[in-house]
Amino acid sequence: MSAASVERPHGERPLIAEANRLMDRNPGYRVEIIGGKIVVTPPPDGPHAVTLTDLVLLFNAAGLHGVESKVVQGIGLWLPTGTEDYAIPDLSLVDADYRDHHVENNCYEPVSFRLVLEVTSSNWKNDLRDKVKAYASAKLPVYVIVDRKHQRLHVLTDPTGDGYDSHRPYSSGETVTLPGSIGGEVTLNVKEILEAAQPQAN
Question: How far apart are CA 73 and CA 48, in angstroms?
């Protein structure tokens, strides 16, 4: 069970208002505020979506979508990096009581997140740089990146300040077992994940 919710000040939210307008005008796009800047990500391609489904099935098979925790896609994460900052990870593992930690704008406090995962898109630098800082600042214990640009799978653990003490990239042919702190045993076959995620040639 997670700690109690934190009260957030109410008032004008100009960036959030603009982000919500952008979402309304661009269905399927993901709009986030990271470091006080609005970030817009195009809709995912088929391999991106299939990879997420494969990972959901893996987490479910490990018993992580049940009484203690939930596996969710596209859930908002309130960030401590700015007064209006929030991210929408591709996939998250959250405590089952995450609803008790609602902040605003369909976002939840970091305390209820056990793991976040991103599959890179055309703006891959956000996942490999900006979100590393944001997620570490939020003290998210495990951050996994399926890096389609460089054909790597990154596992980041032990957040400190605006980075992670442990950042290990894995290549095709390797396997990685995620930290037991997430609540179950999940072993990832890097080759299978990268092959499923491989973007289609234009």
Answer: 12
- Are 175 and 189 in contact by the 8 Å Cβ rule? The answer is yes
Residues composing the chain: 202
Rounded distance between C-alpha atoms, residue 68 and residue 12, angstroms: 36
Reported as type and span, the H/E element at residue 115 is strand 113-119
State the Cα–Cα distance between residues 113 and 137, nearest whole angstrom: 13
- Under 8 Å between Cβ of 171 and 152: yes
59: alpha, beta or left? (left if phi > 0; alpha if psi -120 to 50): alpha
Tokens describing residue 15: 């960036």
CA nearest 163: which of 119, 129, 196? 129
**DSSP letter at 57?**
H
pLDDT in tens, 107-163: 999 999 999 999 999 889 999 999 999 999 999 999 999 999 999 999 999 999 999
Continuous segment of H or E residues that includes residue 50: helix 46-61
Q: How many CA atoms lie within 13 A of 193 on its CB side?
A: 29
Q: How far apart are CA 184 and CA 63, in angstroms?
A: 7
